[in-house]
Design goal:
Blueprint: H1 7-19, H2 26-39, H3 42-55, H4 62-74, H5 78-86, H6 94-106, H7 110-123, H8 128-140, H9 144-154, E1 162-167, E2 170-175, H10 184-200, H11 219-224, H12 227-238, E3 245-250, H13 256-268, E4 272-276, E5 281-285, E6 288-289
Parallel strand pairs: 3-4
Antiparallel strand pairs: 1-2, 1-3, 4-5, 5-6
Amino acid sequence: MVLHGFGSEAIATFNDMRHAGIEPDEVSFISVLSACVHSGLVDEGLRFFNIMRYECKIEPKLEHYVCMVNLLSRSGSLSKAYRFIEMMPIAPNSTIWRALLSSCRIHHDVKFAEKVAEHLFELEPENKGSYLLLANVYAEAEKWEEVKKLRDKIRVKNNQGCSWIEIKGKVNIFTAAGNAHPQAKKIESLLKKLRLKMEEEGHCPKIRYALIDEDEMENEVALCGHSEQLAMAFGILSLPRGKTVIQVTKNLRVCSECHEMAKFISRKARKEILLRDSNRFHHFKDGHCSCRGFW
């Protein structure tokens, strides 16, 4: 339930468990707090956190604090999340700060992201993922010089992500540089047509998520390079007749551009798309996603 975004259903199950006389433990609270995070249920999450501490007398661990930072920051309360971290009785680790930095990207707060990133760089100076997160924030703000500096520093490669889809018992793997696939031309042609239709309907491609400048690469090539888009397009071309569900798995978190593309495909191609990224499941149907923007 948690990873599928069924927050209300998870809360109902948690309450039923308590009514049946089963006392929740610390793992139960991690589950219900995670459900609140993935569904944007801020008030409910705060209530369960207090129930854990004051009614059930369970001392929160780092996992619970990560949930709370995610809950507050994803809803846009970045300063509140920062103060929450400062008031924690235990030292925050890199996971805590990374959760807050990810939300800075979602809410386009460059200054706050830089402040949070300093904590991450101090804790894990060699972790490329932290620099990449900050680069995404800069890309959101179209601060290409800062993006370039970070890319030069960590030498980020664009083919780290991969997605895969199973068709007729065969697993097809796509990377960002997916032009090695036998149907690469057909896939790229379909994606180009879909992007044109998106633009005609007023959807502007979010090239900033590609972390590139126009001088580095042609925009259309960059947009075509997201591995989950390649897998989804291949699914449309290859699904057996009568089958309407496309199932794709990605090793990294889905980016906002591909998230918008999946919503568009589900409506335009009349397909249901089940995308499992590194964070959760996304169910796309009729132009909507089960995550409702919380992922």
